[in-house]
């Protein structure tokens, strides 16, 4: 479905869900950022102490794969909610950032490199 | 632009950017999850020790607003990259999660409540 | 017990526990830092969407208080283990940092202020 | 100094520093937990996309080593402050946790294993 669903539509689903529950009062930027961090951390916890091979096996296992995908959805939920509440156009922001990244990471210098732009 | 850009298109922009730089070798699930957490934490750091009123003022300030939006884009970048690398359809996952959330948080019990479903 | 136990003693308990289990091979700096972040995030999750009043009540409740204290111990475990593995003297580092903080946050400017030193 | 300084003494240094600045009003459990997570994440960010070999080199480099040690001290600062504010004896909590860990991770089953106790 990723090929036909817009960010706007996903934001709308979440807006409706939260407004019906009268959650605007709890969903300020600090709490939503806490939501993003804590859910992201639950995803990371799956990989703690695991080798790359073990992680690949986790993604080949339907149950584990589904759990990790759900964690990712949990992070996305809070990102979309924050963007919706504070009127941030994620597409515009992402494209701006990718434009900046292209300047920061020119192909000829960063192809095959794991360096941060501040390190070169 | 959020109303007309699909998740698929955003994933494509990021896939192209990373593949041109030959970064698949560094972008495994653990590293990308670290990316999500650390960028999310940079967003959260903006709000540390700030009151709700101060945070609202930050969003009214163009420079601060732009900084926070960029942090959000940084988190989204790693989410989209992880989804692209491991073939996760974010739209499907988010809709599945919202379906689950509707069961977990029935309107009559959770309207106006800040409780977690496990607490009621 | 905090009044008579040194950081060194706590590190020793953890070193012995981990070496007996032959865990040095898994406990590199990246994994231990993941450990610190993910455990810290579990602590933070207790406070998500909670008001200050609700959090105070949680600390008055023996069961909740004990859960939160355990999360804090989990974070401390990984900090001590990282310090032990990489030969970092936490006392020295903390004292150096407090010295720096005193310069960064002079009393006359920061008494009663929630500002970061970079903001003033 | 880790061999002769008690946790209690470190808490005292921090208590004095914060009380002189009248920061109790800002230092509630949620904010301090945010402090722990965000500082821990700054430490983790040093290791993002780095190989084990590169990380070892970072610890051999005095400047980098000092930066990472300072990040660790930043995390410890917020842990000690939270423990001091909410009257948590970290030594007792850590010892309780290690006792639990010994039960959860019996030597004969977990020697050389990277499994979580819930996985075996």
Q: Given the structure, what is the number of helices of chain A?
A: 6
- Spatial separation of the terminal alpha carbons of chain A: 39 Å
Structural class of chain A: mainly alpha
SSE order of chain A, as H and E?
A: HHHHHH
- In terms of per-residue confidence, which ranges of chain A show pLDDT below 50 for 5 or more consecutive residues? none
Q: Helix fraction of chain A?
A: over 70%
- Please indicate the percent range of residues of chain A in DSSP E strands (runs of 2 or more): under 5%
The gyration radius over C-alpha positions of chain A equals 18 Å
Q: What is the oligomer described by this structure?
A: homotetramer
Molecular shape of chain A: globular
Average pLDDT of chain A: 95
Structure summary, number of beta strands of chain A:
0
Protein architecture, described:
4 copies of one chain form a homotetramer. Chain A is an all-alpha fold and 120 residues long. Helix content of chain A is 71%, strand content 0%. Chain A has 6 helices and no strands. The first copy, chain A, has helices at 7-20, 29-47, 52-60, 62-85, 90-104, 107-110. The interface between A and B is large, with 70 and 70 residues.
